[in-house]
Inverse folding.
């Protein structure tokens, strides 16, 4: 055993005692980031290179600060995104809905499909679409000025790494209720992961104390923002345009009815995430 592996074992016990869900993984990822190696290379770090700041980072995680705030990075599909205070940490659940949008756009018989991502946060959805569907033109809308600082930073760094995305994602400041009037009736796909947690629900400390409140709470039934997104999408989409909205695991039936035929939608479908839980609804503008 090396010194670093011994320290990781001790840190794993401390994180487990603090209620961290994946203590070993988190201790390894913190150590790997700090020592500039991959997880598979941790055993090769010489004892003389052990960085004692490891224990500062472990103390932060023990206090339930999100792993991604400590390492400064969140992985989403093929992207590494910068995240920290003021922006929602993108989740794995959202990758499936983003993949659905990417598949639909790739199959769409439109030269330059126009996309709107309502509530873009770090830019995870918008930037993945731009990276994976290079002909798409993506409009990312965000109301929170702190979150937009992270979006801007991620747009710039993804453009540096994948030059074909440069200029393909436009960030718009403002409320998605009134967003993008110049595109009314011309958008091919609207995608959104809006705030959808019912007010008063329990959330873990990593979420309640670190994700911005504007990214989480969706009113009494959690669907306030979902209803607004549906209204905006109806205005923005061309006939036959597509909408995908993420929601909580218990909200599939309720969101289905927000997007029911009598509200002007067709072919509404529920979809599950990788864990098999209801996670997003897709529909078509008649
Ligand atoms: C759950 S987060 C999703 C962020 C990102 N799309 C993702 O999937 O990781 C919701 C985002 O919507 C933004 N938001 C909430 N209400 C909004 C509104 N009325 N207009 C624009 N953005 C809004 C929040 O600031 C937050 O960044």
């Amino acid at each position: 055993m090396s010194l670093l592996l011994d320290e990781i074992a001790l840190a794993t016990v401390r994180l487990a005692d603090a209620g961290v869900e994946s203590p070993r993984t988190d201790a390894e990822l913190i150590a790997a980031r700090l020592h500039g190696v991959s997880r598979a290379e941790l055993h090769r770090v010489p004892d003389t290179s052990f960085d004692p700041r490891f224990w500062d980072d472990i103390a932060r995680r023990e206090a339930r600060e999100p792993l991604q705030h400590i390492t400064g990075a969140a992985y989403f599909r093929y992207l590494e995104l910068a995240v920290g205070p003021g922006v929602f940490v993108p989740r794995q659940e959202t990758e499936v809905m983003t993949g659905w949008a990417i598949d639909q756009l790739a199959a769409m018989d439109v030269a330059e499909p126009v996309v709107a991502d309502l509530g873009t946060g770090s830019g995870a959805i918008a930037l993945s679409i731009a990276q994976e569907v290079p002909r798409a033109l993506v409009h990312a809308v965000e109301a929170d000025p702190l979150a937009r600082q992270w979006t801007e930073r991620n747009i710039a760094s993804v453009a540096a790494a994948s030059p074909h995305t440069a200029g393909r994602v436009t960030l718009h400041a403002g409320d998605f209720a009134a967003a993008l009037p110049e595109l009314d009736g011309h958008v091919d796909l609207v995608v959104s992961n809006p705030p959808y947690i019912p007010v008063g629900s329990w959330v873990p400390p990593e979420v309640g104390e670190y994700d911005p409140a504007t990214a989480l709470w969706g009113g009494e039934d959690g669907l306030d923002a979902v209803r607004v997104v549906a209204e905006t999408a109806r205005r923005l989409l061309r006939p036959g345009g597509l909408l995908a909205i993420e929601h909580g695991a218990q909200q599939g039936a309720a969101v289905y009815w927000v997007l029911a035929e009598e509200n002007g939608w067709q072919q509404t479908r529920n979809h599950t995430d990788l864990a098999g839980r209801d996670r997003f609804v897709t529909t078509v503008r008649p």
About this structure: The mean pLDDT is 97.
